[in-house]
# Entry
Amino acid sequence: MGVDLFAGLGAAALPPLDRAPRILVFDSGLGGLTVFSELAKALPSASFVYAADDAAFPYGALDDQRLVDRVVAVMERLVAREAPDLVVVACNTASTLALPSLRARFQLTFVGTVPAVKPAVAASTSGLVSVLATPGTVRREHTRAMVDAFAKGAEVTLVGSPKLAGYAEGELRGEPASDADIAAEIAPCFVEREGRRTDAVALACTHFPLLTKRFAAVAPWPVAWIDPAPAIARRVLALVGSLSPKQGEPARALFTSGDARPSGLSTALRLRGIGCVGNEVFPLS
Ligand code: DGL
# Structure
């Protein structure tokens, strides 16, 4: 991508380890799998635990204080249980709000996921760029600040979709949304002004890259869909320092709802190299 997504976002590099690093990848649901896949490619010997706070999904619908409290409380449990060396908060909705609280609470390296405004602007020639996110991410001051800092003359349209994260979950479970429903959610991203058209859309929710093919199929015209996952993986690799010569444990997944999971989901997890699924049950009160 050639643009540093993480400039100014401080995260401490790991001290050298004599074993494979333990990396916790956290999201409200299945969207963080888009980040996990890139991480697993970049760090094939690391031990990964994928944790989904599906009891509280969707995070985009929680008010700010509730979301911060929830993320910190779930993280308490996960950190105590898994003792990670580094945590990837593979969720824009949580990262844009809760990272300062997480960094204050835990002596751990956190890597977050923030809207890829900078790479989207760099990819645009028309100067019309959209950021597609959850309503929570669109509301955040942090998101507005990123637009102010990185728009560099481009016109950035923020689009908050309340439904797409759920559609992405459905897609992975084998219950896809209709083309018309998907087209309606992405329609506000497509802006035409004085002969120019939006030509880059930042996917600012980790669920959305699960739907990129569906988006492309119903889009009114072609655009670059910007997925920050490869940049996040490069960032984590840089913080880990080097690839461990020792092979870690096989990847596992944990869910907070304890609900029965459809076979389509187990297949989707297995395809991504996650064979073992467990629960850390923590209902949303
Ligand atoms: N995957 C999350 C993100 O990146 C959001 C989904 C949700 O609303 O829980 O923003």
Notes: The mean pLDDT is 93. The first strand starts at residue 22 and ends at 27.
